[in-house]
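To fix ideas, we give here one paired sequence and structure record:
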Amino acid sequence: MAIRNPVEWGVDHWRGWSHAVGTAGRAAYRREEDAASLLPAVRRIGIADLGEALKRGIDDFMACRTDVIFLAIVYPVAGLILSQVIFGRDLLHLLFPLVSGFALLGPFAAVGLYAMSRRREEGEAVSWSDAFRVTGSPSFGGVMALGLVLTAVFLLWLLAAWGIHAATLGPEPPASLGTLLDAVFTTRAGWTMLVVGMGVGFLFALLVLTISVVSFPLLIDRRASVGTAIRVSARAVALNPVPMAAWGLVVAGALVAGTLPLFVGLIVVMPVLGHATWHLYRRVLPRGPIDRPFGRV
């Protein structure tokens, strides 16, 4: 056996490594192409589909209202607790960001409602306990991972809102709610805060709408990865920009309205929107030959 010099040895090994990396890259690219080809087909929808989704959402709520109201009590309770924390810790300037932030967490908070609508769609009896069966689905890990993403977005929104307040009205918290409202609506800095805050809030809402409008129902309904669910959701928004924008406004407006009377309205608003989101998902992604539903959840 001939003893090769270090240069020859290095060249040979470099060729081997290059071949291995190239092979792995081509394989990964093929897997990505195969995964893309298996993505479910997204349908075009119109404004009328939003009305139909809301109608069916209300129908689901009325059919399961006793069980759903029992579950939905947690929403106003959580809102009231957070409000008390804010009032008690000089965080009044975060009150509106907190209220509006419900729209960012709504898709994750409604996962149990999607599962209930799915069972009712299949003609099965539905009770409040069915909302917790989602924990046994094969994609539950993906549901939790995407939920953590939305939680991170919510916290970033609160941080951004705090920064906008500090840059306009100053870092000191307001002495009272009346003082805050007076500063917001009667000063130039307050109007600047409103305009900038609404613009930044719109960007956060657009991000959440894009990545989650159908991703949570997809993860509950089919075997899919988080990446696949997000790509399908983004595709649905890109293909239906006007209806999805209208849906985002409906959801945001309804959630904000539901929080106004001491968050009590969320007992009705959250279940209706949750059930309606499931039916919107069904209109955007009807069942097809590539579906691989994992049965009961």
